[in-house]
Automatic annotation (TrEMBL):
GO terms for biological process: 3,4-dihydroxybenzoate metabolic process; glycerol metabolic process; negative regulation of DNA-templated transcription; positive regulation of DNA-templated transcription. May be an activator protein for the gylABX operon. Keywords: DNA-binding, Glycerol metabolism, Transcription, Transcription regulation. Residues 75-259 form the IclR-ED domain. PANTHER family: HELIX-TURN-HELIX TRANSCRIPTIONAL REGULATOR, ICLR FAMILY, TRANSCRIPTIONAL REGULATOR. One of its GO terms (molecular function) is DNA binding. Residues 14-74 form the HTH iclR-type domain. This is Glycerol operon regulatory protein. Signal peptide: none annotated. SUPFAM superfamilies: GAF domain-like, Winged helix' DNA-binding domain. InterPro entries: GAF-like_dom_sf, HTH_MetabolicPath_Reg, PcaR_PcaU, Tscrpt_reg_IclR_C, Tscrpt_reg_IclR_N, WH-like_DNA-bd_sf, WH_DNA-bd_sf.
Amino acid sequence: MDEGEVTERGAHHVQSLERGLAVIKAFNADASELTLSDVARSTGLTRAAARRFLLTLVDLGYVRTDGKYFSLTARVLELGYSYLSSLSLPEVAQPHLERLSAEVHESSSVSVLEGLDIVYVARVAVSRIMTVSINVGTRFPAHATSMGHVLLADLEGEDLHGYFDAAKLEKLTARTLTRQKELKAELEKVYRQGYAMVDQELEEGLRSIAAPIRDRRGKVVAAVNLSTHASRTTPESVEHELLPSLLETARAIEADLASAPPTKAGHTKAGHG
């Protein structure tokens, strides 16, 4: 690291930690097993450095290897769980989701915004609607989801510009909004009406509606949704039959968050993008 980089990042910066995290992040759904060369290429590390980091992670139990291929172990979930378990949001939201799903007989979830994606932090599944399973920690692109629209609609200024500069707005179905102008118009509508509906933009057959969850200052820190199969509902029936209960649940979660200890409620705002 040269002097300029030290000045830019600060004297506190620990480059070895940054590199170790980069090695962990090299693994993903499309690259669950990697060779030493794969990791070196993905991270920009030398083979020797990549090998040291991988073997250290093996020693710590975060990575396993058969001698050629490396893959993450379930222990890496502890890193994310440490964050989630420090929040009051998931534990506060879960009983409300259970009551909501029992009332309307549809799956419900709470998510937060992280970068370009939403990340599920609480969920009650009544039935499996999507072709992929959804669990706590599941990520989806914000532009194609009802909760993403709610969370993006609250972004302002540089945060919103930054999102659109970085987002690819991939077309996931024929209905996905992929033009910035169209998505911005939809976000303005969501902001005005106080909820978002996404009709088969993430996956064909999936219809969902979401509402914001706000902190004490009125800032949107999470979103709660209900998802249903398009064959069972219409957009009109979702708004008429599901939206009132969804909005009531959002307000109930907000009330409980507001009464949570300040140190824990404060954590719910961290890292939401």
